[in-house]
Please model this.
Amino acid sequence: MHFKITSKTIAVSELANTLQHERAGACATFEGWVRNHNEGQAVASLEYEAYAELAETEGNRILDEAREKFDLLAAEAVHRVGHLQIGDMAVWVGVASAHRGPAFDACRFIIDELKARVPIWKKEHYVAGESTWINCATKGEFSTDDAGPSS
Amino acid sequence: MHFKITSKTIAVSELANTLQHERAGACATFEGWVRNHNEGQAVASLEYEAYAELAETEGNRILDEAREKFDLLAAEAVHRVGHLQIGDMAVWVGVASAHRGPAFDACRFIIDELKARVPIWKKEHYVAGESTWINCATKGEFSTDDAGPSS
Amino acid sequence: MKTLTVKYFAILREQRGDAEEQLRTESVDAQSLYEELQAQHGFTLPVDRLRAAVNGEFRPWPAPVNDGDEVVFIPPVAGG
Amino acid sequence: MKTLTVKYFAILREQRGDAEEQLRTESVDAQSLYEELQAQHGFTLPVDRLRAAVNGEFRPWPAPVNDGDEVVFIPPVAGG
Model:
């Protein structure tokens, strides 16, 4: 069970291989992709930045919590950093379990917690030319929603 | 949006490519794998058989229902038939959406409905030498659980 | 008398010893046809554990059949 | 006086114009250190929207600091 920060393209098939287990009947995965819009604005690209050391510590803590809460056989997750384009994969979470209930529940728990707790930040670059660090506005309305805006 | 029956190895990366959409921020997938045990018995292999024509009709109906219930951008699913070994992938479901909530919910809805409604049958071959068609016992206890035993 | 095609899958295919047959019958629906065939071939599943499909679509019991129809009895499914 | 290393990420890095600095300070905790630095560099985020990390672990405010510590102020996260 590992959570990693990477600056490279996420290698899904290699990660998926690490989930294989002869007792596993179910595998649930989640991928977060850079999409071309957010809250009504056309997005051109996204910049992700992480405090990698603490992000990996906290991400591994989340995987440990998932293993305690759910009946899991394997769990892996990776978050990419750097300048990503529309369609690029920013995050991958994969979970294997004997049955599908815990696989889905754990996969969702992990991505929810990663988004809420792990020190990774996202700067949106808009087609209109501006850019902004998500959740870091200090005037008017800002989102305190743990879910974050991307997915 | 397609549901297909195949007798070949499920080609995950090709399927995943069909989900790409520039408005998609979330992709949830489910894989059902042949596991080495079921209800306490050691399983050697699984045989899957389908009434392919009706299975594809009913599977596509399920994908249509998912599209009506959830805010989806793409959904694909494939079920394999034939004699499968431990670790082989029997079913794959993939869904893309702007946000992760509908992606997870739709993915789970689709696999739940596929298992409950689509005319596919599974014969378990046990290490001990016997074999049985799952859910088709007529004496003593039998499962009427829609969830089925595999995942 | 009508001529029907019957396809068998899974446990029914094994118990019938064949995947498909053409037969002539007086049965007016799939339910009475199954009972006729069950007596003949010793199918273990009772009709209330099956569903019927006629010409590639699920049909509620008793599922009327006409000359030339294709009938399939659907044992409890177990995909996934 | 103690010597601390401060690392900046995201909006704080941009507003500071640097990713890391060593500094000498009288501050006894990360909270008073942030207020000191905020006055100096014009950070827009109030301290109550940040979390503190000391030596690679989250610490509750005010987060005491000692000579040689590495301090990071964590803006609201937005992974995924």
About this structure: Chain D has a mean pLDDT of 98. Strands of chain D lie at 2-7, 20-25, 51-54, 57-59, 70-74. Helices of chain D lie at 10-16, 30-41.
